[in-house]
Amino acid sequence: MQQVLIIGGGAAGLMAAVSAAQYGAQVTLLEKMKDVGRKLLITGKGRCNLTNNCDIPELVKNMTGNGSFLYSAFHAFTNQDVVDFLNQAGLPTKVERGGRVFPVSDQAKDVISIFTKELSKLQVNVKTNQTVKKLIIEDGRAVGVITTEAEYRADAIIITTGGASYPGTGSSGDGYRLAQAAGHTIVPLKPSLVPLEVAEEWITELQGLSLKNVTATVLSAGKKAAEEFGEMLFTHYGLSGPIILSLSKKVSELFAAAPDQEVTITINLKPALSTETLDKRLQRDFAKFTRKQLKNSLHELLPAKLIPVVIDLSFIDPDKFVHQITKEERMRLLTILQHLTFTISQTRPVAEAIVTAGGVSTKEIDARTMESKLIPGLFFAGEVIDIDGYTGGFNLQAAFSTGYVAGRSAAGS
Fold first, then answer.
1. In whole angstroms, what is the distance from residue 149 CA to residue 158 CA?
2. Which one of 189, 202, 318, 405 has the lowest number of neighbouring Cβ atoms within 10 Å?
3. Rounded to whole angstroms, how far apart are CA atoms 273 and 247?
4. Residue 129: what pLDDT?
């Protein structure tokens, strides 16, 4: 019977363990924390966005970091396969806006319970509080590991240690160190899906405000670098929310290429309206509230927190009566409504990123099996590989698919 050793009990590791055991291997799963699935607990704000129900080309498209590497894995274990596996194991799922798939219970802990139950049923040996210090490589082949507690031997080893984000969940970059020591190239790490810090101190006035149906545009040297439409959130330090997280990888890349350049992000608060149409809307509101002060006339157009900020940036006296507003002042107001601009000072650190970009080079991994091209018997799955994508269930699908393929391949290697 093939002996398979898995390092890391996150999404990829759990699926790899299930897969390898289903294909007849005797599996041991080593987890450095006291329990498995810690990062799964915080995905989807604790609800666990399992996957996305789009087609495979769309899955690949949304994995912006080396998505083409995942074609084979996505076909081998599809998003429907993920849903079927969980449903058959006793976890009903549902599809929400944007094709996002969640447990019906909205509880990430239920997903971990399902995996724990399956591992028990498949007689997977789960050993927690086990930090792997070193791979054992003999005659050019991976044959075991040395942990803080013991030495383990196996016919195949799968590294599924995750990235370097949320180190409190166990994802502290151990897999990169192990892979590098074995001769693998580590593509430099960058935060992907991470909030952005801005230089403007008045951002604190908007803390907690969430906006829907806005467009955010990243500008570098005055040229558009990336754009997203949807929801965003203001924080005490800057910007977050789905569209900001999606844009953050481009921001990371811009800063990596030229750390001292000015990168800005512009929010169009009313992207559905042309400047002309928005001006007509503004004039209608002004006609309606002609005897009110400006600060009391924009409540039908903007959330309350935004009104004083927009007026201030337009250089208009908030106490000025609407019928006294000049055309020039109205044009300044229009400009801010469609170009609310922030200077990005930096991304939040990798440790706070939902996903880490970079990792073990895909050029050194067989995309059909997830086996190392350098060290026979060594496999990789999940975020430790240089793959990353947008929010919406795509990164977890990549973890499940690569984990499944690595487990199946390791069981028969």
1. 19
2. 202
3. 23
4. 92
Q: Report the first-to-last Cα separation within the chain, whole angstroms.
A: 11
Residue-wise pLDDT for 122-178, tens only, equals: 999 999 999 999 999 999 999 999 998 899 999 999 999 987 665 555 556 789 999
Exposure string over 375-407, b if 16+ CB within 10 A, otherwise e: bebbbbbbbbbbbbbbbbbbbbbbbbbbbbbbb
Q: Do 269 and 216 meet the contact criterion of CB atoms below 8 Å apart?
A: no
Per the CB < 8 A criterion, the answer to whether 191 and 248 are in contact is yes
Res. 322: pLDDT tops 70: yes
Closest CA to 210 of 121, 138, 303: 303
Q: What is the sign, positive or negative, of the torsion defined by CA atoms of 154, 7, 127, 37? A: negative
> Taking Cα atoms as reference points, which of 259, 269, 173 lies closest to residue 229?
269
Count CB neighbours of 63 within 10 A. Answer: 21
Provide the token pair at 212: 């829907």
Q: Is residue 311 a contact partner of residue 332, using CB atoms and an 8 Å limit?
A: no
- Token pair, residue 64, equals 């912006």
Burial of 161 (0-12, 13-18, 19+ CB in 10 A): buried
Name the pTM for this structure: 0.83
What DSSP string describes 303-319? -TTHHHHHHHHTT--TT
Q: Which amino acid is at 231?
A: E
